[in-house]
C-alpha cells in the first residue's frame, strides 16, 4: 500500500550536499580534473548559502 507513496517521495527528494559533492567529483575525467574539483569542493562551492 505504501510502496508507490515511498517511490514518489524518493523521486521528489532533493540530494544532500554530500551527495551533490560526490556526484560532482565522480564526474571528473582525469586526475588533474579530479584535483581541480576537489579544490573547488574544499573552497565551499556546494556549501554557499
Structural account:
This protein has helices spanning 3-12, 17-26, 31-42. The protein is mainly alpha-helical and 49 residues long. It has one domain (13-49). The protein is elongated and about 50 Å long. The termini are far apart.
Key words describing this protein structure:
mainly alpha, 0% strand, 49 residues, 3 helices
Architecture blueprint of SSEs:
Elements (H helix, E strand, L loop, with lengths): L2 H10 L4 H10 L4 H12 L7
| Topology order in helix (H) and strand (E) letters | HHH
Give the total of domains: 1
Helix content: 55-70%
Q: Rounded to an integer, what's the Rg over CA atoms? A: 15 Å
- What best-fitting shape do the alpha-carbon axes yield? elongated
Compute the number of helices: 3
Query: How many strands, what sense, and barrel or not for the largest sheet?
Result: none
Give the end-to-end Cα distance, rounded to a whole number of Å.
38 Å
Q: Tell me how many strands there are.
A: 0
Tell me what portion of residues adopts beta-strand conformation: under 5%
Compact description:
This protein has 49 residues and is an all-alpha fold. The protein is built from three helices and no strands.
Amino acid at each position: 500500500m505504501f510502496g508507490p507513496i515511498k517511490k514518489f517521495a524518493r523521486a521528489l527528494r532533493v540530494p544532500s550536499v554530500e551527495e551533490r559533492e560526490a556526484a560532482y567529483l565522480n564526474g571528473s575525467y582525469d586526475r588533474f580534473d579530479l584535483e581541480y574539483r576537489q579544490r573547488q569542493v574544499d573552497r565551499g562551492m556546494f556549501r554557499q548559502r
